[in-house]
Amino acid sequence: MIRLQGKTPKLLVVGDLMLDHYLWGSCARISPEAPVQVINVASESTLLGGAGNVINNLKSLGAEVDVISVIGACNTTDELKTLLLDIGVDTQYLITQKNRITSKKSRIVAAQQQVVRFDRESVDEIPLDKQNLVLKNFKKIVANYDAILLSDYGKGVLTHQLTQSLIATANANNKKILADPKGLDYTKYKGAYLLTPNKKEASEATGIKIKNEADLTRAIKQIKTQCDLTVSLITLSEQGVAIFDETLRTHLASAREVFDVTGAGDTVLASLGFALSCGLDIDAAVKFSNLAAGVVVGKFGSATATLNEIIEYESSLHQSISDEHIKTLSEMTLLSAELKSRGKKIIFTNGCFDLLHAGHVRYLEQAKSFGDVLILGLNSDNSVKALKGNNRPINPQIDRAYILAALEAVDFVVVFDEDTPLNLIKAIKPDVLVKGSDYEGKEIIGQNIAHELKLVQFIDGKSTTKTIEKIQKS
Q1: Rounded Cα distance, 64 and 11, in Å
Q2: Does 242 share its domain with 312?
Q3: For the chain, what is the mean pLDDT?
Q4: CB of 274 within 8 A of CB of 63?
Q5: pLDDT category, 467, cuts 50, 70, 90?
Q6: Is the CA virtual torsion 443, 446, 449, 455 positive or negative?
Q7: pLDDT mean over 269-296
Q8: Does the residue 142 lie in any domain?
Q9: Residue 339 lies in a domain
Q10: How many domains are contained in the chain?
């Protein structure tokens, strides 16, 4: 399904920036002073939160991103700007307000469980002069973006008046504006393309307890009508996402394992904005956002998902198509580097695989067992002819690649044109190189590059040559 590799839409995020601060430690005793845990802090980390997490998600997907917000004159702001600059996001549209404290949420975590959270922040609405400055900057640059995302955490940046002015300006420039809403009065977002409330938020905003499909239909229609939306949407946690434009439909969630839902709403907003900006329709965009959220909830804290992680995740759910697993050399070079950065053990093998038979499948299944990701280098038609003669291959390279990519054991297929896969092995730098047992005692191309060599026993009597001979005799 996912065909968004190489897309770099440009998006603008407006909203409440904050920091997510984590103190990581362990607990071995209860305090003698009070019945509370004593946490021995071993490390700490600080991440972009709120609208910053939306930005982080967009950058992870490959988008170009700018941000407009109002921040405080405080140490937290210095940390915030540094983190934004570190991911290549310009801070020129951040407006400083004296006596304002930029939000910082500090969490103490022991054994992957939050023990306590404490916040430092200002939540008063920004004054009119700052609202006017936000709007002035917005009007100056709005035409440069594919879509606008409003990340409202109720911290005072997106006032009712400012939000309505931003939406009117975006609509006048024919730009989609998506908002993650807060509060009970959704008329604040009237005229947006869509909102992303969850079921609880939608129930509170409409006064309708969503217990069945009839309640869902009433609530989602009410939000669409009251807010004059193009599309009305409600996220339903493990039940997926409901959409209503002219009809109601629900796309089931893709989460395989839920570890932490922190920031999942940011991922939904970011992935929807990204997908729509790449030209996907609303249903395809929602399916994409479900997959992105499925990746993120399997991580701890405010997390992000890359396109490659989403593709890998979709594949693990058996929802992807074979085309998505066939890569070029340059694509595979970048992807293998990312996989290694995530601690994945890469296996590589190669061959002609002309007429696929049980011996091939068993061999590939055994190869996959040596690590996490199996990359198969496939000899091109020209390469097969050079090795096997002018009557080979029987099946052209695109057919062979497609069939191999459909196998559960094979994660990626890369066609190479040379007699040997040396250049491919140099680019991938696999952890494990796998060959057939007939190579025992022989020099193997790439053996000095991979960390480990594994030889796999073939099944007796199973070979492409013997299959061809049998066909010719019949």
Answers
A1: 6
A2: yes
A3: 89
A4: yes
A5: low
A6: negative
A7: 90
A8: yes
A9: yes
A10: 2
